[in-house]
Amino acid sequence: MTYLQVFQKYEKQLARPEELRYVFRYKKKLTYTEFILLLNSESSDEDLAFIAAIFERLLVDEPAQYIVGNTEFCGLTLTVDARALIPRPETEELVNLILAENSAEKEIKLLDIGTGTGAIALSIAKANPEWVVTASDISSDALSLARENAELHAISTVSFTQSDVFSNLSGCYDIIVSNPPYIAEFEKAEMADNVLNYEPHLALFAAQDGLAIYAKIAENAKKYLTATGKIYLEIGYLQGQAVSQLFQMQFPDKRIRIIKDLSGKDRMIAID
User: Fold this and answer.
1) Beta partners for 251?
2) I want to staple 196 with a disulfide (CB 3.0 to 4.6 A). Which of 15, 122, 191, 258 is the partner?
3) What's the rounded Cα separation, in Å, for the pair 205 and 72?
4) Where are the domains of the chain?
């Protein structure tokens, strides 16, 4: 049986069939060309067993990124596991927005609330090593993963603090950024099993129909933001008006922008 026939046999049974080839190719460290050339050759007994093992994990909806052990984010290869949410491409757009609007500034203090893997904080620190970046998370497990990613990429300009939003933080920041939990409990029924059954619920769900963390940030951010400071948030695509209203109440003199992602959905809010 050729590799192509083996893949086709298993892919028919998977909800996300493309993940089987992705995991195999990544684990085997094959280039795309090497993989294509392999497809029409006879599969080895060792690889048959290996593909079957990957299939069994994908069949129970384990995320491909957890099987591989990492994911790409803004040019960084980040270690990922069940300690933190898998970074999404939409969050890269949030990072790109912050960099596009602020990279001319040389002395910036930035706070990343709910850092998870460290994706936002580390990619910004990598792009602007002169900035002073603080990454916080309520989860000690997530912070340990973020620290591992910082060490992996030799990024030493990020400090890590365990904090429930602002509870263990002090000082003022020029930029506060957050991609907080924003999924409402009632939305669980619509979620894919590979997210619901594997990624940490602490990083997914929030009370008040998903608005609880935004409300906490809005109510307290003034004490931690410089006079000309900015706030950048990732939001659920239906939350634009609700989140913007929370911040408009607390920051009546600042501009509130709802920004769409590349799919045309409301995805970010900027307060400046």
Assistant:
1) none
2) 191
3) 24
4) 3-60, 73-271
Dump pLDDT digits (tens) for 137-184.
999 999 999 999 999 999 999 999 999 999 999 999 999 999 998 777
Contacts of 216-220 with C-beta under 8 Å, sequence gap 24+, read 216/165, 216/166, 217/113, 217/165, 217/166, 217/176, 217/178, 217/180, 218/246, 218/247, 218/249, 218/250, 218/251, 219/250, 220/165, 220/166
Token pair recorded at residue 113? 């609330």
Find the radius of gyration of the CA atoms of the chain: 21
Q: Which CATH class is domain 73-271?
A: alpha beta
Binned at pLDDT 50, 70 and 90, residue 53 comes out as: very high
Q: What tokens does 241 get? A: 């008006």
Among the listed residues 55, 92, 25, 57, the one whose alpha carbon sits nearest the alpha carbon of residue 194? 57
102 DSSP β-pair partners:
none
**162 phi/psi in degrees, rounded to 5:** -80, 120
Q: Tokens 């994911």 belong to which residue? A: 71
Which residue type is seen at 134?
T
pTM of the model: 0.91
